[in-house]
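User: I want to check something. If I give you two sequences, will you return the structure for each one separately, not as a complex?

Assistant: Yes, each is folded on its own. Here is the first sequence with its structure:
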Amino acid sequence: MMMNTSKNQFSLSRGTVIRGKWHKQTYIVERELGRGATGTVFLVKGKDGSLALKLSSQLSITSEINVLKAFNKVQGSSLGPYLVDEDDWEAGGQTYPFYVMEYIQGPTLSSFIEKKGASWIGVLLLQLLENLQALHQEGWIFGDIKPDNLLVAGPPFRLRCIDVGGTTKQGRAVKEYTEFFDRGYWGAGSRTADPAYDVFAAAMVAVNLIYPNRFNKDEHGVKGVISRIKQKKEFEPYAPVLIRALEGRYVSAWQMREDLMASLSPGNVRPNSPPLRRNVSAGRIAGRSTIKKQQRIRQRFKAAAAIITITFLYALYVFLELL
């Protein structure tokens, strides 16, 4: 039974049957999962088991359906849930659009980090940036990135999103955002949907995981956030990466991901280049043969460092999977 439909919020009792007008699929309500600006999400039972159904009184959820379809097209991306069905439900003389998607189970990102520790932040942030890059290539910006919208499914652990309501076509104004993660709120840029908007929000997700109570903007704006990053030892391995993201120095999620991967590797600190030998008697720089030898040494060092980095990251990933 439908108890309330005001302001796009629905209260449905357990056992309520939702039958699609067009596709004739039947879904039985188990419980409410959450409420948003455009509707209410319920855990339902369908022919394929547990699913999540979003019910709305607005046709605006069509854009969310298009986003889910875009997620489905992104090969290798596991960020968003996959779309199962879209239809209309007729009840009480009214027609309500709804869509059905994969039901993702797991703790929120904040709960996961609280239990597993801050060492997981970098690993999961790498996943988030990889999936954001794939989404950006399809022409979308996620928009409302925050720990509340992110679950950690598995094992193997995968970062997944449960709310795509803020996803926006690139070039348009971001339609949904949360102030703490919004670069416009911090005076660090506009609310135009571009990859750098998501990159900023991804960095703020990391900040929120260490500062779970969040904090308000002061007269220093984003510089105040940077100051707080520098105060926490948990950020030491990749603080420069977060700072560059907040300063808008990355134009793509992939750029930030590459820097983050380098900062998490054991070879991220480069030794000083070997000094040129000097001819003591003549006081002159050694000749070309010495320079070429030094160049060969540097090339070998770079190759070895790359192999060590890849091996370390793979070993780290396997180790964390087994925790």
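And separately, the second sequence with its own structure:
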Amino acid sequence: MTELGDYLRACRARINAEDVGLPSTGRRRVPGLRREELASLAGVSVDYVVRLEQGRVRSASPSVLTALARALNLQPDEYEYLMRVAEESDTTDSRPSSRAGAGRRPRVSPPTQVLLSSMVNVPALVLGRHMDILGWNRMGAALFTDFGTLPPNQRNHIWLTFLHPRVRALYQDWHKVARECVAYLRMNAARYPDDPALAQLVGELSLRDADFRTWWSHHQVRAQRQGRKVFRHPVAGRLDLDFQVLEVRGGTDQSILLYTAEPGSSSAEALTFLSGWATDRDGTTADPRRPTRDTSS
């Protein structure tokens, strides 16, 4: 079996016949569309759908994948994921190995760290592959936790969301945030399907958290771009924060996750209060030259 086949079956199971204009007749043994129905909607043979789901098609054409995506009502992020996993299923020797660089923990460049540290009232994190936390500013640590006290293998956004009690308790709607995190990780994993660090992370979370295990099997995908989260911070109180993800260009596989509040809102005032609290706690004023990135590896 392949990730492409697993994904097609999961998407097929989520679609009701009525959703795509087909009559629902008789009792169905399994939820979702039958293979015959998907094949008819996409204009391909049933045998081809079977071979795709069983991983016996070496390379599916973009036109066929697009037809399948249309039949399954896939959204843009889901379509992007489908194309990625289909590309990975084409096992050509010319494709660069996704294991390249997997054994080295990336560093945050000094200019990027200066940018983070200059954001006095904006919590910001630098994320690497699979949502590893590679760097942070004082406000990022104040909002979540002191990342510098954690072992490097625990400095991962999704690991903390599921397995760190204090971070988990920060979210007012933990289930929504956690499910989105799984979808982000699944989306990102399509780029590096054979990365051993990914396998270790997914394995640990699957063993230790039943919710993660269930949601991972659902194959929901979503690109991490922007949204809103509500925090219940033990010091600053309620924080309604918008987040956005900015790509760090240059082939670094890094992005900046930052949180902002609407100007003049109570959340903006709470962020200002949190900034002052963090400064008093550290006993220093914000200094963009002061390193707050991972220097232990």
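Because they were folded independently, the notes below concern the second chain alone. The domain at 110-282 is CATH 3.30.450.180 (Beta-Lactamase). Confidence is low (pLDDT under 50) at residues 91-97, 285-297.
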